[in-house]
Amino acid sequence: MQIEEPPRRRRLVSLTPLIDVVFILLIFFMLASSFVEWQAFSVDAPGGKGSAATTETEPLRLHVEADGRYRIGDEALGPSGLQDRLQAVHAEAPERRVQVLAAAGAPVRSVVRAVDAASAAGLRDVALLREDAG
Amino acid sequence: MKLPEPERREPQESTVPMINIVFLLLIFFMVAGTLTPESPLPVEPAASEAGEAVSEDPVRVLIDAEGRLAVAEEVVDGRPALRERLQGLLDEAPERPVEVMADAEADSALLLDVMDDLREAGAERMQLVTRQER
């Protein structure tokens, strides 16, 4: 009598091609995806001139100098002083408008920092303007 | 004479744990990262702490550190070309939000010029894009 051979176990499907494909996908997603989080400020650019708007309350005019320093009136400010000053302004008049006046040559970095500081201090109404030559 | 026994080969390491890890990485990159189309200009926006969410499907104007301009994924040659292109885009879809993404080192005077162009082209609101600071 011939005894039947036990059925051989089927070979597992090779995993190597799967790993290849998964690696390729992994590398694709690693290279193609970005993790930078964008955010934005809504800004007004009314005509680009500093003297356009006339309102009841005088807006706070924050000058950004070409070398990246800040000035309110005749008072020169550093980045940390700017934050404190704007917070003081907010405590006094929360609805006060702010005009950021950028001098020609000032990098966008400084302007963004000024808008950011105003926004962090709670001053919402920020306009971006060109500093007049005079 | 006694010969040393030939070293026994270690059993091959299983590839299954590796596949598990690779799959996890793949899923992480797929879920956590966002796929972004390649930018026509190298632009590194300034970082800011505050800010609001960016709008979806905007008309995006890029300004790089050298002052080159791009709109809607295409490099344009100077401001007249930019204005023309913007006019076309905004006539087509006047309700589309407009975003300006300026390099941190770009001149803010150019940023203001571009904002003037946007206003002339009929953009009601615009957003200045920044990178989220951590």
Keywords:
heterodimer; A: 134 residues; alpha/beta; 5-stranded mixed beta sheet; 3 helices; 7 strands; B: 134 residues; Nucleotidyltransferase, domain 5
Describe the structure.
The complex is a heterodimer of chains A (134) and B (134). With 134 residues, chain A is an alpha/beta fold. Helix content of chain A is 34%, strand content 22%. In chain A, helix 2 runs parallel beside helix 3. The longest helix of chain A is centred in the N-terminal third of the chain and has 17 residues, at 16-32. Chain B has a domain at 47-132: Nucleotidyltransferase, domain 5 (2-Layer Sandwich), CATH 3.30.420. Chain B is 34% helix and 20% strand. Chain B has three helices and seven strands. Chain B has helices at 16-32, 78-92, 108-121, and strands at residues 34-35, 47-48, 59-63, 69-71, 74-76, 98-102, 126-132. In chain B, helix 3 links the parallel strand 6 (98-102) and strand 7. In chain B, helix 2 packs parallel to helix 3. The mean pLDDT of chain B is 82.
Across the major sheet of chain B, the strand order is 2-7-6-3-4-5
Structural class of chain B: alpha/beta
Measure the end-to-end span of chain A.
114 Å
Q: Helix and strand string of chain A, N-terminal first?
A: HEEEEEHEHE
Stretches of chain B where pLDDT falls below 50 for ≥5 residues?
none
Count of helical stretches of chain A = 3
Give the secondary structure arrangement, pairings included.
The complex is a heterodimer of chains A (134) and B (134).
Chain A: H1 16-32, E1 33-34, E2 38-43, E3 60-64, E4 70-72, E5 75-77, H2 79-92, E6 98-102, H3 108-121, E7 126-130
Chain B: H1 16-32, E1 34-35, E2 47-48, E3 59-63, E4 69-71, E5 74-76, H2 78-92, E6 98-102, H3 108-121, E7 126-132
Parallel strand pairs in B: 2-7, 3-6, 6-7
Antiparallel strand pairs in B: 3-4, 4-5
